[in-house]
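Checklist before submission:
- one chain only
- standard amino acids only
- sequence pasted in full

Submission:
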Amino acid sequence: MLPRLARRTVVRACALLALSAAPLAAAAGPAAAAPLPGTALLATLDPVPASVDVIALVGTNRRLYTGLVGQGSLVDLGGELHGTPLLVAGEQASYVVGLGKGDVPYVRSFQRAWRRLAPAGITCQGPSAAVSGATLTVSCRGSNGHLWSGSTQLAGDALPYVATWTDRGGSVPYGTVAGVDAAGVVSYEVVGTDHASYRKTGSKSFTRVAGAPLCFGPLSQDDISGGGRACAAQDGALQVSSNDPADADGIATVRGRVVGRPGVARDVDGSSRYYVVGTDARLYVADQPAGGTLRAFRSVPSRASLFGLSAASLGASSDTAQALGQLAG
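Returned file contents:
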């Protein structure tokens, strides 16, 4: 998740990556990957226009790729990942959390290579993160199926390490979502075994989220303070809850077949792009203007992906967007 307060940090971090992209771009790129088995139910339309959205995904060779949508090839950041990656924005640097073999969590920045995020014995599925000031909180589905979380202080561009984790209970089949309210309080959302969404804040018990759709896959990794939650319906279609949390019936649906976690890029004005991986392992997006109707999927030029993805809007100026385009240069 990329909290709204930290999005400008993403711009700074990605700009640094653009300046240091030569060593990354010089690495030998993998051969074009074949689509995954399965019937593609998402219609392939014209590519979306170039934007200032950044995405992170795992290629079919299990390496991490990240870059700007519509700005050419993605940058290969290596690794051997076994789950959906997670973009995290801090005050001084931005990071990507990835899952190695056995669901072991790792973290890297755009300048620093992979290292373990947690002590031996800690496993992590469906990771999420929230940043409040210099405090990073990471949450996951633990090996016992419960919500687990831990916090650490961010320091400069050093990679974070979460030494202590707490079992917060619940039953979490699809992973977690975390967010911070205006007062700096961390809350968590999970999809329960009944496919409903539940929220937990502090030591309080889980409570059902009113107006949220029934989810048959993980919730989008996004700000949880309001509406706009996205997940797969029982038939695989993308469904998005109303931007008005009081509107219990405001759920929009886009036909298709979503694989894994959707990625959401949301602008300050409320306009959103919902990125998904289809059964053909390709990337698609459904746009929703601020206060407008959710549009049908359109294909996005990208490499094939094994899982869902993480996405964010940079909210950058055209000059910054042009500099970030050098990532794929």
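Reviewer check: Residues 1-50, 316-329 have pLDDT under 50 and may be disordered.
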